[in-house]
């Protein structure tokens, strides 16, 4: 009769984690749920079941989260339905790998969930954010290109808990993810000690519960308490020094209109620019969103000789820009064209001009969006172009330099700032480079979120950006088409919006004019980088080695 026993319950607990974790992110933004959302899925790690059915349940649980969480991706363009489905099927593979590792570690019966879960989870969040070629160490072997999907980390669910997220200046968003995962693991450990829970899971044939996880529970509680105490200590500081007054302009131009009606795009932002520079008090800098200036910039790379027609065009472009009445220094989001190595390259650029139209600097986006800003294997597989939302080729070349823009205020003070374009603010590596060496005074994020038509993408993007402010201990000024433009202070607080609330700041025209808070504090994370996920991987490698040695030893009964 053993073969007719009821199978352990797998799919229901696995899938239950999906909606729980989804609720912790926008649009519901019920962040505290994240501290328990993983528990149902984690029960599978210790399930007596084996085989493909177990792993399929674990994978399906991840799909149950990513499919609704990424639903906003499809709004951008009909072809983006494929991106939505593709991401929803690929991202769960990282959960599946984590599940495999957790099962292997748990079989050693020496590490409780309160330790193994955060170590594995953070290690794989880091991999997902850089896979396959975005790992910085690949620069040394010539295989490096920024890529990866750094959204929906556990830590981002806690963006609204300002004291808690201050630990991001120690270990980045990964530190917050580590804490949330540790609480999930500890709670799961206790829950699985309940005979009622084990009965509901149909674990009649399972081994007895592990020993009481007192030490790991105390460690998780101490870690949470220390994080909160550290947070309140970091928030208890003198007021920030006043920096320049920056005006971020925001129109609500849908992407389809932005592509097909550049005159409407230009007129909308020109009106906002005029309003911004004529306001009282006047801004020291006006910031336009990504690619919202409808005319291309053209120049010749230093040390390059260009044909006469190219030189003529570059001179004409420079003359046109210098004739505009900017009335204040301006940072423009536009397409930057540059002649280099015998051809014209296109960049997604941020161009800074003086009030007289003289070029003060240019930053070119480094972390390009696949199928949005470049097509992989385009020359070999030209049909891949069909997966882009553009009718024409819009391939950009990645930038290579972290530009420090100079800014002099109307009262004569000097500052510098760095720029992040679009989803570059979801990559902690890029933002911290601006303060690791030659620290800038503040950061600017320009983005075009008009693709997503007022969905929860706008709020989730802003929630992610809050962590970059804390990690770098620098204010972030955001200028975003369709929203949400704002100013974030170095503690991660949103201090200025175009509307009364986050939701009220989407799909509206407005100007965010504010004095940028300047922070001189140093950040451990900016200085030492991703030491926490690196440590997690070292522990996993050591654990794997220990497991191999332990499995190779004969058991007592076999001697």
Separation of the first and last Cα atoms: 33 Å
Class inferred from helices and paired strands: alpha/beta
Largest sheet: 7 strands, mixed
Helix content: 40-55%
Average predicted confidence as pLDDT = 91
Query: How would you sum up the global shape?
Result: elongated
Low-confidence stretches are none
Count all strands and give the number. Answer: 13
Report on the structure:
The radius of gyration is 26 Å and the shape is elongated. The protein is an alpha/beta fold. The protein contains 19 helices and 13 strands. The longest helix has 22 residues, at 214-235.
Describe the structure concisely.
The protein has 559 residues and is α/β, with parallel strands linked by helices. The chain has helices spanning 11-24, 34-37, 39-42, 52-69, 80-90, 92-106, 113-130, 162-165, 168-171, 173-191, 195-200, 214-235, 255-260, 262-277, 308-323, 428-436, 457-472, 524-528, 531-552; strands at 241-250, 285-287, 297-300, 330-340, 343-353, 359-364, 405-408, 414-421, 442-448, 476-481, 486-488, 494-496, 510-518.
């Amino acid at each position: 009769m053993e073969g007719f026993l009821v199978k352990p319950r797998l799919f229901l607990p696995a899938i239950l984690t999906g909606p729980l974790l989804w609720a912790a992110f926008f649009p519901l933004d019920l962040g505290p749920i994240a501290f328990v959302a993983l528990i149902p899925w984690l029960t599978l790690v210790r399930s007596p079941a084996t085989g493909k059915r177990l792993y399929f349940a674990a994978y399906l649980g991840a799909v149950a989260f990513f499919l609704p969480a990424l639903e906003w991706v499809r709004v951008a363009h009909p072809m983006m339905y494929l991106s939505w489905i593709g991401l929803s099927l690929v991202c769960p593979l990282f959960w599946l790998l984590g599940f495999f590792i957790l099962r292997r570690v748990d079989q050693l019966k020496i590490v409780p969930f309160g330790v193994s879960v955060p170590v594995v989870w953070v290690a794989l969040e880091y991999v997902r954010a850089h896979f396959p070629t975005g790992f910085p160490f690949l620069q040394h072997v010539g295989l490096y290109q920024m890529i990866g999907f750094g959204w929906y980390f556990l830590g981002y669910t806690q963006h609204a808990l300002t004291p808690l997220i201050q630990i991001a200046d120690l270990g980045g968003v990964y530190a917050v993810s580590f804490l949330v995962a540790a609480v999930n693991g500890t709670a799961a450990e206790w829950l699985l000690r309940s005979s009622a829970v084990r009965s509901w899971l149909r674990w009649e044939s399972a081994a007895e519960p592990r020993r009481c996880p007192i030490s790991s529970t105390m460690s998780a509680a101490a870690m949470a308490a220390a994080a909160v105490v550290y947070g309140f200590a970091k928030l208890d500081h003198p007021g920030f020094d006043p920096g320049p007054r920056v005006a971020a302009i925001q129109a609500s131009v849908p992407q389809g209109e932005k592509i097909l009606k550049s005159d409407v795009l230009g007129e909308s932002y020109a009106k906002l620019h005029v309003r911004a520079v004529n306001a009282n008090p006047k801004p020291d800098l006006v910031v336009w969103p990504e690619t919202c200036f409808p005319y291309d910039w053209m120049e010749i790379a230093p040390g390059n000789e260009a044909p006469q027609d190219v030189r003529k065009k570059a001179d004409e472009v420079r003359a046109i820009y210098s004739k505009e009445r900017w009335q204040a220094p301006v940072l423009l989001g536009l397409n930057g064209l540059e002649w280099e190595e015998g051809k014209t390259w296109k960049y997604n650029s941020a161009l800074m001009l003086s009030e007289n139209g003289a070029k003060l600097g240019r930053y070119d986006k480094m972390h390009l969006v696949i199928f949005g800003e470049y097509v992989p294997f385009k020359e070999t597989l030209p049909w891949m172009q069909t997966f882009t939302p553009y009718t024409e080729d819009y391939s950009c070349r990645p930038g290579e330099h972290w530009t420090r823009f100079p800014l002099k205020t109307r009262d004569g003070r000097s500052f510098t700032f760095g720029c992040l374009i679009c989803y570059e603010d979801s990559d902690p590596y890029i933002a911290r480079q601006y303060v690791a060496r030659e620290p800038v005074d503040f950061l600017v994020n320009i983005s075009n979120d008009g693709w997503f038509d007022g969905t929860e993408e706008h709020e989730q993007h802003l929630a992610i950006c809050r962590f970059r402010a804390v990690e770098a201990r620098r204010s972030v000024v955001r200028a975003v088409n369709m929203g949400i433009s704002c100013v974030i202070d170095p503690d991660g607080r949103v201090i200025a919006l175009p509307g009364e609330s986050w939701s009220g700041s989407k799909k509206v025209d407005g100007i965010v004019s504010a004095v940028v808070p300047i922070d001189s504090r140093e950040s451990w994370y900016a200085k030492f980088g991703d030491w926490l996920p690196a440590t997690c991987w070292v522990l996993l490698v050591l654990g794997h080695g220990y497991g191999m040695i332990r499995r190779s030893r004969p058991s007592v009964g076999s001697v």
